[in-house]
Automatic annotation (TrEMBL):
Gene3D superfamilies: Alpha-L RNA-binding motif, Pseudouridine synthase I, catalytic domain, N-terminal subdomain, RNA-binding S4 domain. Transmembrane segments: none annotated. Pfam families: PseudoU_synth_2, S4. This is Pseudouridine synthase. Belongs to the pseudouridine synthase RsuA family. The lineage of its organism: Bacteria, Bacillati, Bacillota, Erysipelotrichia, Erysipelotrichales.
Amino acid sequence: MIRLDRFLANQGIGTRKEVKQLIRQQLVRIDGVLIERGDHKFDEERCVVTLRDEVIEHHKDVYLLFHKPAGCVCANHDPLHPTVFDHLPACYQRLSTVGRLDKDTTGLLLISDDGVLAHRLLTPSRHVRKGYEATLLKEIDDAQVMALTTGIDLGDFTTMPAEVQLIDAHRVRLYICEGKFHQVKRMFHAVGNEVTALHRFSFGPLSLGDLPQGEWRPLRTEEIEELKEVSRP
């Protein structure tokens, strides 16, 4: 059972305030019956909701893959910066990012309304790997690689051992299972280096492929199943 105002907001019809106004204007019906209260509860799986006599499709568990460009933040609203949701249609403004990427970090971002799956994907104990390509200020050396692959005490937590693949002296691919705030940058800073550019190219079984920056696509059914499989308890 779900409240009518929440249902309409979840379907991207408007904010909670805006949909309450639509209900007060007697524009919403459930199974043909006029509903005048936003807190009216109903079974969204069985009932048909109409707005101005048009059926509101019930969308649940949306999964989007987005190629985040630099310069936007992972928030639904921000008064100072553009957000990733500025790149999405209005019907998806209710979704949430699964984890966050820094403003200057580019790459793969999963966006969904499946809170249970999001929690499982972000829990370090599930060991869902995230792959990053880091460009470094200094040449990376063997001691830095050893520290990264052993685990680093960052004060508030100790990182799990990372997998490091060298691209060249100033670029590496780094795979981690956590996703703490500024983690990759903090890890390199802790070993005496600095990240000058950071790009996430994979998240669990997902990869960007040829998706251009600033573009998005729905996940394929098999991708959703793979995500659920790697995050199972």
